[in-house]
Amino acid sequence: AMKDDMKKVVEVNDNLKRYCYSGVALMSGLSAGLNGYANSLHASVTWAGWAMGIAIPLIILILGKVAGLLWKRGLTRLAYVTAGAGAGLLALSVWHCATSIALLTGSPLLLAAPMALAIDAGFCACELAALAD
């Protein structure tokens, strides 16, 4: 009877992956736009600043996936180094997003920072949840 109950729980389609990937798409898109805007403000070549900013969420995502694969293969030191690079870029992205939100909305940086953190950490959390499913 217990096995049947467990089987029913596993068979439930709660759309987790759909929500996870929707969150990744939405939040990484927001992060890309906000990073692009922040980078373009200081770049001597505006399009290059936008391109670099837009690439940041993709780089973070790739570094996270590579770190996870390295961890699974038992290459823990290299996994930590790779994850550390991703975390450093994530921190920079949060700052860029916060400054862009503050500039675009007129809100103080202190109020823009939690939204920036939610956007960037949220897209990472959604990707992790999709992988865990």
Properties at a glance:
133 residues; mainly alpha
Write up this protein.
With 133 residues, this protein is mostly helical. The protein contains 5 helices and no strands. It has helices spanning 2-11, 16-42, 46-72, 76-105, 109-132. It is globular, with a radius of gyration of 18 Å.
Give a quick rundown of the structure.
This protein is mainly alpha-helical and about 130 residues long. The protein has helices spanning about 1-10, 15-40, 45-70, 75-105, 110-130. Helices cover about 90% and strands about 0% of the residues.
Topology (SSEs and partners):
Blueprint: H1 2-11, H2 16-42, H3 46-72, H4 76-105, H5 109-132
Helix pairs in contact: 2-3, 2-4, 2-5, 3-4, 4-5
- Helicity, in percent? over 70%
Spatial separation of the terminal alpha carbons:
24 Å
**SS-based class:** mainly alpha
- Average of per-residue pLDDT values: 89
Assembly classification: single chain
